[in-house]
Amino acid sequence: MSLSRRPLLGLVGAALMVRPACGRITVTDHAGRTIDIADTSRVVSIGGSVTEIVYALGAGGQLVGVDTTSRYPEAATRLPQIGYMRQISAEGVLSLRPSLVLSTTAAGPAAAFDQLRSAGVATLVLPEDYEFTGVLHKIENIGHALGREPAATALIEACRGEMSALARMLSSTTSRPRVLSLLSIAQGSPLAAGSATGADGIIRLAGGSNAIISYEGYRPVTTEGVLTLAPEAIMVTTATLNAMGGIDGILKAASLGLTPAGRSRRVFALDALLLLGFGPRTAEAARRLAAFLHPELAWDRQ
After folding, report:
1. Rounded to the nearest 10 degrees, how much is the dihedral formed by the CA atoms of 66, 162, 128, 291?
2. Which terminus of the chain faces fewer neighbouring Cβ atoms within 10 Å, N or C?
3. Could you tell me where the beta strands, DSSP code E, fall in the chain?
4. What is the β-pairing status of strands 191-193 and 178-183?
5. Alpha carbons 121 and 91: distance in angstroms, whole number
6. Angle 6-146-52 (CA atoms, 0-180°, nearest 5)?
7. What is the DSSP string of 123-162?
8. Cα(137)–Cα(132) distance, rounded to whole angstroms?
9. Which pairs with CB-CB distance under 8 Å and at least 24 residues apart come from 164-169?
10. Could you report the per-residue pLDDT of 128-183, keeping only the tens digit for each?
11. How many other β-carbons are positioned within 10 Å of the β-carbon of residue 286?
12. C-alpha distances in angstroms, 160 versus 1, 31, 81, 82, 247?
């Protein structure tokens, strides 16, 4: 199977779209709690990848609210917003009278979700990790919760096909370029991504190696650290690229211009949700990064 550049959103045709489940659906959340879902007509989605999945399954019409990270597809930006996913207010969510709340463990605080459950709102929180299998798990469980199993199965097969094609391409090279992923903050040094991050996950899927393996999460980058790491490529979101003044601005930070990546101006930028969201478009993001990291491969022959 060739690795298509076409976004997966919308690959599930109208023939697979089904009505909201009329009967009761039982699902299990990240903590092993049993969630009974009787009504999927008013859904609040928290997390950009969750919202993408809902739309990809043809259930966008059931959404009555989203968080501020839900920026794709464009239709999601026209829905009422409940705030940033890590600072959810139960009162704001309840004001939309949801029959179902969908989220992942990346959202919080936990107390807000406890309040939603106490108010009697079916609240499904799924595990969030930065593996491709985690993407498939979210699609499968959200599809089940919404009564859209056929659409979920089709989307999973499409995602697997694209990722399998990418894996076959990468199997022809042993090169694993060192990639330093940076995140801009309002003030001070940019942050560098270690393990257990979306950046680390997408780098590995794209056939690269994270330049930082000594810590988890994000920490400020230093000149000494950058020169020691000697990254061969730098990865940023488009928002970070703009905030730091483009490639020239990035290469001025912490002496990045003196690294192998800096000397060759190898800076890769992509939309944050696409690059780090671990949703239906993860295979697309991994392919685009892989093509940047491995120009020696015959990408145009697929």
Report:
1. -100
2. N
3. 25-28, 34-37, 43-45, 63-66, 100-104, 122-126, 178-183, 191-193, 209-210, 218-220, 233-237, 267-270
4. antiparallel
5. 12
6. 30
7. EEEE---SSHHHHHHHHHHHHHHTT-HHHHHHHHHHHHHH
8. 9
9. 164/1, 165/1, 165/2, 165/3, 165/302, 166/3, 166/205, 166/283, 166/286, 166/287, 166/290, 169/3, 169/290, 169/294, 169/297, 169/299, 169/302
10. 999 999 999 999 999 999 999 999 999 999 999 999 999 999 999 999 999 999 99
11. 26
12. 10, 27, 32, 32, 34
pLDDT category at 187 given cuts 50, 70, 90 is low
Distance between CA 49 and CA 71 in Å, rounded?
Answer: 9
For residue 44, give the amino acid letter. Answer: V
48 has a pLDDT exceeding 80 = yes
Please give the CATH topology (third level) of the domain spanning 178-301. Rossmann fold (3.40.50)
Give the total residue count for the chain: 302
Buried b (16+ CB within 10 A) or exposed e, 164-178: ebbeebbeeeeebbb
Rounded CA separation 278/131 (Å)? 8
Identify residue 211 by its one-letter amino acid code. Answer: A
Partner residues linked to 218 by β-bridges: 193
- Confidence check: pLDDT of 3 > 50: no
Q: What is the pLDDT of residue 174?
A: 95
Of 72, 75, 80, residue with least CA distance to 61: 75
Residue span(s) of the chain under CATH 3.40.50.1980 come to 14-165, 178-301
Could you tell me if 37 and 145 are in contact, meaning their C-beta atoms sit under 8 angstroms apart?
yes
Q: Rg of the chain over CA atoms, in angstroms?
A: 20
Helix (H, G, I), strand (E, B), or coil: what is residue 78?
A: helix
Of 98, 103, 113, nearest to 138 by C-alpha is 103
d(CA 57, CA 53) in angstroms, rounded, equals: 6
Cβ count near 227 (within 10 Å)? 13
Question: Within 10 Å of residue 255's Cβ, how many Cβ atoms?
Answer: 15
CATH class as words, domain 14-165:
alpha beta
